[in-house]
Amino acid sequence: MFCFTKKTRFFDRVHHALVLVLIAACGLAAAQEGVLSQLYAARPPAGSSYVRVVNPEAPALAVRVAKGSVQSIGGQTPAGSYAIVHGGQDFSVQVGDTEITGLQVRPDSFHTLVLRRSGKRYAVTPVDDTTDTEDALKAELRFYNLARACPEAALALSPSGTLVFRSVAANGSAARSVNPVRAAVAAQCGQVSTPAQQLPALQPGDHLSLFLLGTAQAPVLVMQTNRTDVFKR
């Protein structure tokens, strides 16, 4: 009886070990499949560029870049995803019933178009988001000064006050790579600061946009993780 129990326990352990090996093998196969699917996924043609629109005003607007999807942007979601366009060729941006035509960006670039109302029409101001060097082991923060009548803006760690970005001009941006750590930040326009906010959990390779909106007297900081449209043949 004792021998039978001992053998049973032995075979149970062997069976358990085999199950773990099979699970690990399946997990490895799934991971490899995921890597291969990314490696062989359809990619945009050479010279393609990426363009998104930011609506710094509160009322949300329905916006479409080139042949991308219609997106509602504004308020706490000021930016749309980066749409894929042909670099060096004209494209348009649809804002509600209004179309902005004759837009163009250089090939192999990333751009944000800041949307502003001009009378009964809309106009865009381009901001070049292209990064010459990128560290895949770090995350990227990009800070935009889109607050009205704010000639220079800054972003600082809170509560230490250590500056992350300084003297960012109106309708301009600045970027830097950081280690994915937990931290709180606050934006400043002159002597007026926004309430401190915790950065979201970031992973290596993530890109986070920090938009200073509102006005110089009442600035508002909004954070949004960057998204890029999937290329379809």
Automatic annotation (TrEMBL):
Which Pfam families does the protein's record reference?
A: AlgF (PF11182)
Q: In which pathway does it act?
A: Glycan biosynthesis; alginate biosynthesis
GO cellular component term of the entry, any: periplasmic space
Q: Which UniProt keywords apply?
A: Alginate biosynthesis, Cell cycle, Cell division, Periplasm, Signal
InterPro entries recorded for this chain? Answer: AlgF (IPR035422)
In its UniProt record, which GO terms are filed under biological process? alginic acid biosynthetic process; cell division
Q: Indicate where this protein resides in the cell.
A: Periplasm
Similarity comment: family membership = Belongs to the AlgF family.
Protein name, please? Alginate biosynthesis protein AlgF
Print the organism lineage: Bacteria, Pseudomonadati, Pseudomonadota, Betaproteobacteria, Burkholderiales
